[in-house]
Design goal:
The chain has helices at about 15-25, 75-80, 95-105, 145-155; strands at about 5-10, 25-35, 45-50, 55-65, 85-90, 110-115, 120-125, 130-140, 165-170. By secondary structure, the protein is of the alpha+beta class. Strand 3 and strand 4 (about 55-65) form a beta hairpin.
């Protein structure tokens, strides 16, 4: 079962909108404005972007005196984790699609990290709230050995490490 949408808070609607329409190439499809729960008199906008084939990513613009204006939007920093832990990964169905996303990102001034994970190849950048976003291309099916060993590896207190096949840094080709 796929997901319907993932929702994150933003403090900069315009920067978030530019990033998700221009850099990510998603379409804004719906904005819902409504009061926030409670008696504060606050309100919010919940805006949704089609990521392709149904799933969406959404953002909250919040105007509520009980919440304030200084809430964290970087999910890793808020959790006390490094930038690479929590992230949102979007599907790239073909190598050509992954390369097009990378080109668009570098054209918009982003340094792109590309990693060959053996079963998939991923590219990464951070959005205006510093949340990590990824496009991922599945490059092969999981082997029967991987499927059978997954439960044991999940519970292994000293797992054998897999090595990544390669990391490439793509420098920006356009202005940020």
């Amino acid at each position: 079962m796929g997901f319907h949408h993932i929702a994150l808070a933003t403090r900069d609607t315009e920067a978030t909108h530019r990033f998700y329409t221009e850099v990510m190439d998603f379409e804004l499809v719906k904005v819902v404005a409504s009061p926030t729960p409670g008696d504060s008199g606050g309100w919010s906008k919940h805006f949704f972007y089609d990521t392709g084939d149904g799933p969406m990513i959404a953002f909250w613009e919040i105007h509520d005196p009980d919440i304030g204006e200084d809430f964290p939007t970087d999910i890793n920093a808020a959790a006390g984790l490094p930038w690479w832990v929590n992230h949102v990964a979007f599907d790239a169905p073909t190598r050509a699609a992954l390369d097009e996303h990378r080109r668009r990102w570098t054209d918009h001034g982003h340094t792109v990290i590309e990693v060959d994970h053996d079963f998939c190849t991923s590219i990464y950048i951070r959005d205006p709230s510093q949340n990590l976003v990824e496009f991922c291309l599945t490059t092969r099916d999981f082997t029967e050995e991987e499927r059978c060993g997954a439960q044991a590896l999940l519970r292994d207190p000293s797992p054998e490490f897999e090595s990544e096949k390669g990391v490439v840094i793509h420098q920006p080709t356009g202005p940020a």
